[in-house]
Write a structure and sequence with these properties.
Strand order of the largest sheet: 1-2-3-15-7-4
Order of helices and strands: EEEHEEEEEEHHEEHHEEHEE
Structural class: alpha+beta
Number of domains: 1
Distance between the termini: 27 Å
CATH class: Alpha Beta
Radius of gyration: 17 Å
Largest sheet: 6 strands, mixed
CATH superfamily: CNF1/YfiH-like putative cysteine hydrolases
Low-confidence stretches: none
Shape: globular
Mean pLDDT: 96
Number of helices: 6
Number of strands: 15
Strand content: 25-35%
Length: 260
C-alpha cells in the first residue's frame, strides 16, 4: 500500500494521480488529541478541544509542504452541491455548505474531513483543476460522483479523457450493513445495478460505496479511476470509523492542491 510516514504522521497517496498535484489522505496517527479522538483528529464538531484540532491541521499542512492559511474547506452536508474556490477561506469566516469543492488556483489547498464516508479526489491535467468530494450513502445515492464530473465539465470545460478520479479509504462492503431505508434508495438510484451494489452477508444486506461511486464515474465517462480499497472499520489503528467506534471518534483529513 502506498503509505508514507514522516515525523510521526502516516498518510496515504494514490499511485496514479498526476505528479502535478499534491495530495494526501491522513490516518489518525501523529496528532495531539486524546481518546476517543486520538490522535490526529481534524474534526471540529466532535467534542475535541479546538486547540488540538487547529494544531493537528497545521501539522497536516506543514508535513505535506502546504501553507496552513491556504486552506479551503466547507460545511459538509451529505448533498451534491459544489463550491468553487477562488481564494483560501478566511479564518473564522462562515463555511459554505457543500460536498464538492474545486479550484484551478495553485495557492489554494482543498481540505475535507471523513470517518467512514468516501473521499473522492479529482484532477484535470489539461485544465489544471483539482477537486474533492464527500460521498456517504446519501451523497452516493444522490449522485455526488456524477455531479462532480458535470461540475468540472460545466465550470472548467473539462474533457472526460483528461479527468483522473480516485476513491479513498471508506467503510467497506464487508462492514457496511444497511437497512430498508437505504436499500430502497439504492434501488431507486441504481435500478438494475442495485443488486450487485447490495451484497448479502448472511441474512443482511450491505452497501458497497466503493463500487457505487466507481460505477457512477464510469457511467459518466471517466476511464482513469483508482480505488484504495481500504476499509476504515477494518483498520482502526489507521482510520477513524464512525460506525466502528459507535460515533465516539474523530475525523481524518484529505487534501489536494495544484503544485505551485
Amino acid at each position: 500500500m502506498p503509505f508514507i510516514e514522516k515525523n510521526g504522521l502516516r498518510y496515504f497517496q494514490f499511485a496514479n494521480l498526476p505528479s502535478t498535484v499534491t495530495h494526501a489522505i491522513f490516518t489518525r496517527q501523529g496528532g495531539l488529541s486524546p481518546a476517543p479522538w486520538n490522535s490526529l483528529n481534524i474534526g471540529g464538531s466532535v467534542g475535541d478541544d479546538p486547540a488540538h484540532v487547529s494544531a493537528n491541521r497545521i501539522r497536516v499542512f506543514e508535513i505535506i509542504g502546504r501553507d496552513p492559511e491556504s486552506v479551503f474547506d466547507v460545511w459538509q452536508v451529505h448533498g451534491t452541491r459544489a463550491s468553487f474556490a477562488l481564494e483560501p477561506r478566511h479564518p473564522n469566516s462562515h463555511e459554505d455548505k457543500a460536498d464538492l469543492i474545486f479550484t484551478d488556483r495553485p495557492e489554494i489547498t482543498l481540505y475535507m474531513r471523513f470517518a467512514d464516508c468516501t473521499p473522492l479526489l479529482f484532477v484535470d491535467t489539461k485544465k489544471n483543476v483539482v477537486g474533492l468530494a464527500h460521498a456517504g450513502w446519501q451523497g452516493t445515492v444522490q449522485g455526488v460522483a456524477t455531479a462532480a464530473v458535470k461540475a468540472m465539465q460545466e465550470r472548467y470545460n473539462s474533457k472526460l479523457e483528461d479527468i483522473h478520479a480516485a476513491i479513498g479509504p471508506a467503510i467497506g462492503p464487508d462492514h457496511y450493513e444497511v437497512g430498508d431505508e437505504v436499500i430502497s434508495q439504492v434501488q431507486a438510484a441504481f435500478g438494475a445495478d442495485a443488486e450487485k451494489l447490495l451484497p448479502r452477508v448472511g441474512e443482511r444486506r450491505h452497501f458497497d460505496l466503493w463500487a457505487a461511486n466507481r460505477l457512477q464515474l464510469e457511467k459518466a465517462g471517466v476511464t482513469k479511476i483508482e480505488t484504495a480499497e481500504i476499509c476504515t472499520m477494518c483498520n482502526p489503528a489507521d482510520w477513524f470509523s464512525h460506525r466502528g467506534e459507535k460515533g465516539k471518534t474523530g475525523r481524518f483529513g484529505a487534501l489536494i492542491a495544484l503544485k505551485e
